[in-house]
Every structure is written in C-alpha cells, then in structure tokens.
Amino acid sequence: MYRKWLAADDTYLDGLSEKYSALAQNNTIELNFVETPEYSAPKEVYNIGQSMWMNKAINESFNLTWAFPVDSNFSYLVRLHFCEFESNITKSGERTFVIYLANQTAEQGEDVILWSGGNGIPTYRDYILLMVPAYLHVFSVLGYLVFRKIWKVKNSGSGNRRMKFTTTPRTSYPCRYFSLADIKAATNNFSDAFIIGAGGFCNVDKGHIDGGATSVAIKSLKLESSQGVHEFETEIEMRSQLRHHHLVSLTGYCTDKGEMILVYDYMVQGTLHDHLYHTNNLPLPWNNDFRFVLVQLEDCSTSIYSGVNGTIIHRDVKSTNILMDDNWVAKVSDFGLSKGTTNMSKTHINTIVKGSFGYLDPEYYRRQCLTEKSDVYSFGVVLCEVLCARPAVIHTEELRQASLAKWPKS
Asked: What is the CATH number of domain 10-151?
C-alpha cells in the first residue's frame, strides 16, 4: 500500500500544540523490530516524536493535537505508530497516555512499553473511523479527524492549572451559581493536592463548600474541547430535568471570567472502573458487588429515561461514568453527550456518533441511529465488566478477543 511520509507534521498541529511543543529525536537508538515488520514505516517515524515542553502549568492546560480535513461519509483506517526511544523509560507504567480520535476516547491509560514489550521496539495500532458531517453553530464544516495525545507529567506542588475560554456560555441556569473566587477557595486555588481525576477535556478536583461542611467534586472543562460549550450547557439543562437517587446530583456551576465549571456531589467511593481494575482502591464488598449487578444497573438505566419532558439518552455509559457514594449506591454521571427528545413516536434520533470505544451500540455506530437501546447495550457491557473484571477493550489481545462484547463468542 502506497503511503506518503512527511518529514514534518507541524502544519497539522493546532495552535497551542505548535506553540508549546518541540521535536524530540534519538538517532543512536537501535530499533528492534520484533513483531512489527521493518517495512511498516521509515526508521524516522520511530525515532522522532513530538514532545510537550517542560512547563507543567502549560502542559496541563492543553492536549497535543493534530487535525486535518477529510471527506465525510467515509470510513478511514487510522494507523498510529509508536516506539519508546527515551533511554530512561524502560518499564511499563513509567509513561502512560490517552488517545482521542474524532473526539472519542480510543485508548485510556495506555503504555507503549506494555504494547511493544520494551524500549526501542516499534509497534502500531489500527483504528477504523466513520466520519460524518459535523456542524458548528450556524455553518457547516467538512468534518475533522482529530488525534489527541496526553503524556502524564510527574510533578509535585501546586499551581494555577486553569485557562480561560474564548467562547463564553450562558450565565443563567436553574441551579446554584458559584463565582471563580468560590471555586478557588473550595480547591485551595486548584491545588494539585485536590486533583481526583483528569480526562481529555476536563480536570476533576475535590473541594469543600459552605464553610467546609460539604464535600463536592469540581469538574473544570478545558479550552481545546470543540464541543465544550455545548456539552457544558447540555449537562446543566439535562440534569435540571432529572432527579433520581441513582444519578449524581449537580450542585451548581461557574461561568465567571469565561470559565466552564460544574460542581457535583462528592462520591466517596469513586468510580466503578477504579474498583474493578485499580488495586489501590477498596474492592467492592461481596454482597454489594452482586447487589450492583442484579439491581443497580437496572435502576441506573431506568433512571436515565425518567425525564419529565420526554426521553433522555445518555450516550456515554461506561464504568468510569458510574460512581458510588459512601453507602455503595451506584450513580450515573456525565450527561454532556446526552440527547433528549419530546417526540415519543420517533423510534430513533439521527445524530453523529459520540461515545467511547467498546461501549458503543454497533447499530448506532454503523447507522448513526440513536435509541434507548443504545444505552441498554452500553449498560450490558458494564455488567459484563463487573462479572468478568475485564475491560471493555483490550488492544493487546487478538482481534476476536479484543472486545468484551465479542469475547464470550470467541
């Protein structure tokens, strides 16, 4: 297959990535082609990489992003080549990262050393993406295939991790309003010690409000999310319609000085995902584990459809979006991608595909037809995760066993 290899990719970097990154290169490393054929790519692909600067405050405020236009309504094979060529990175876990393709999570907490087997060993990963037309406000755009990569920065100490948005959302919503000063007071000026989670488009901090009497989770959206304002408004508008003990309660929001910050009840026991796969958290108690499997998943899925003005479809149900309170009650969070309809006669909603690989309803992915059953499928994947303690996708497995949904049939 013919490929055109470019000596430099800086023309495809977005503004922040071009400004705050540099090329890193190791010309002395001896590449060891173990499973990847040597003809897969030129040597320069594996000994050169784009690197963020050493400034922690800047690095934590953006994703390293490449973007380029593609024709819509086609499926594309995206092959990403990797090789760890820094001599001080030799063990799994020393450098992990997240990959986003077309605004969807493709890999989370992944590790090149784990993929390849060691330093200096090239490897690659293939992805299939169906690109559909994208619309931004009142004018249409061609649709962009976006690849985002985050390298974890191991630093200590506190600092201001916030960046202002160039687009300002509405300032009046039917829930409590917090000023930026309130948020800074609640998080000790966004101290690193308060961080409890980080994603491609947001950071999550633990905070204390009402004079320290109430613990909350504070979700701060980042600048580079092209859907940021829309998802921010959707989250508030959808959550204002829903009240259920299996939904994480939205306490309030902040739009002060262009910020987009959401404040939620603090879930003491964290995410279901962390209890399934991370040993530094308490395991799910035996009785609660099966109570969750048999009862709470059904209750969670039912609660989403109990909107007062029609049907609401979550669109991003996964184990990281299911949290548990101090009584181990499961609650669904993160409604930024959700869709609602008041037309109950419609069997589906036509919309572009959003969500997370491994949890997406195959019919929704193929036909862009979103239904209540799309969430049911995603909840089914989560149920299988709980029963099998196996991630939704394992890219190191062979194709037939990579997907949890297909794994039992293999």
From this structure: 2.60.120
